[in-house]
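User: Run a structure prediction on this.
Assistant: Running it now.
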Amino acid sequence: MMKVKKRILLLLIACIMLVLSACAGTGAGGKGGKGELTIYSPHTPGFSEELAKKFEELHGTKVNVHYAGTNVLVNQMIAEKNNPKADVWNGGGGILAFESAIDKDILAQFIPQSAEDWAVVEDGIKMKHEDGYYVGVQVQVLGFAYNTDLVTEEEAPKTWEDLLDPKWKGQIQFPNPAASGTSTLMVMSYMMKHGEEAGWEYFQKLADQANSIPDSGSAPTSAVAMGEALIGIGFDFMAYDQKERGETVDFILPDVTPILVNPAALVKGGPNPEGGKEFLEFMLSKEAQEIIADWNLIPVHPEVKSKTPLNLADIKSHAAILDMDWVNENYDRIRNEWKDKIK
């Protein structure tokens, strides 16, 4: 009897060990035992979910995406600094939020192998951080959305100065630079070229042309789609998203304008750093870049074609030269001064 009980006990132990071994071998993410991966992203949920699904399919690692606005995510990563919950931060409306986050000690240094030979700045576009704290995974262009039912392509403004034409009086919208990083970049880019005094003079005139200056970066493009404005300042993909939905909206690439990569970065001290590195490698792969292109974003992979009229090779000649040191030093000051100077 004792021998039977002993055999049963040994059999139970063996079964338990087998189950534990299987769990360790596959983990929460399946193949390879890499565990789960957590991504923080302000991107559209559908876009992030498609990327996550493709990564899971290729690498067998379960991906959890936590969605929130960029500022919310940054504050959350700061609050979690002693016990990080995220492995990767993907997207933030351009590089400004990432540049600012470096000083907050929430990012780790990692550049995917495919981007190691990239120049830090290519034709005025900063493609990656000089010390490896982020890498650009897609490109976005600041320009002019216009309503094609109400404005012809020939009539539409082609330069920033064209926006001051009296015919656009009361017909323009642009985001509030005190609230929108998109618009802050617009202001600072103009000042780098023309000086602060001329910049403030220009933006007071532009504010006088506007019928609304909303806080949201995408609101002006939506207003154009609804006919509430003829011209809206925003990023290219905002206009092309509206156009894809059947709205009478198109986009003008200005002669010289801010062009930014939207980066991804490894979170410092994240629970799955190896999985995070693998995800960043994936973001520059052909598979991920094709998803990026499908969402009307400009890919950085040379073999992936943009689905919009804009591609990286052609837009480089339009890129405004940005002094990122000056941007970092003066970003908060310019935002605060906007509230006092522009009436």
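The chain has twelve helices and 13 strands.
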